[in-house]
Amino acid sequence: MLQDKVALITGASQGLGKALALAYAKEGASLVVNSRSEQSIRPVAEEVEGLGTEVHAVAADVSKGEDAQSLVDEAVGRFGGIDVLVNNAGVLGPRVAIEDYPEDEWRRVIDANLTGPYLVSKAAIPHMREGGSIINVVSGVSVDGRAEWGAYSVSKFGMEGLSQILAAELKDRGIRSNAVDPGGMRTGMRAAAYPEEDPQTRITPEENTAVFLYLASDESKGITAQRFKAQEFNKG
Description:
This protein is of the alpha/beta class and 236 residues long. The protein has helices at 15-26, 38-49, 65-79, 103-124, 150-170, 188-193, 210-216, 230-235; strands spanning 6-9, 30-35, 55-59, 82-87, 128-137, 176-181, 227-229. It has a seven-stranded parallel sheet, sandwiched between helices.
């Protein structure tokens, strides 16, 4: 499905990002996997290598312009271009009311969840091949503002807009941009957001990759500016 494609995945050390790296590798893609530390991303790269595909691990804080540019430069230097960009990296931040939200935490969450995808997209676009696909990870709280979701919700609202703007700007260049809401999954972030919830009631990230595979593949050529709910797509 993804033979001869190069995919760059941010936030790939755990959870959904790691699941996507392994799913893409199994379908034949070459991978650039990213997280903030070499220690966290190296084991994922080794697991991908074990599947018989090429992989390059890059430690970078994508909320910083120099790191985002370096990430893309390394991807292009290794593989010559990028076919698929998955903007997945993100943090939850505190679950408190706006009046109690610390300013430094607000800036940290917005930078990680929204500025990072902007910086990586900006750096990657000149190197994306025709037929390329940008996949932006959004959330149920990116279309429905809820109490005590603070900067996380606001950043994901921004990701919805960024995804649509990219779709409009890149359509004539044959590059598509879509948003995916993964829904609740059995991840560390979900456990932090809902500590009272039984994790076993949620699907694993590994069970939630179908729409991401579709959007990375040529099957979705011409599909852009859309918003997908991953778990509904699984059922369809």
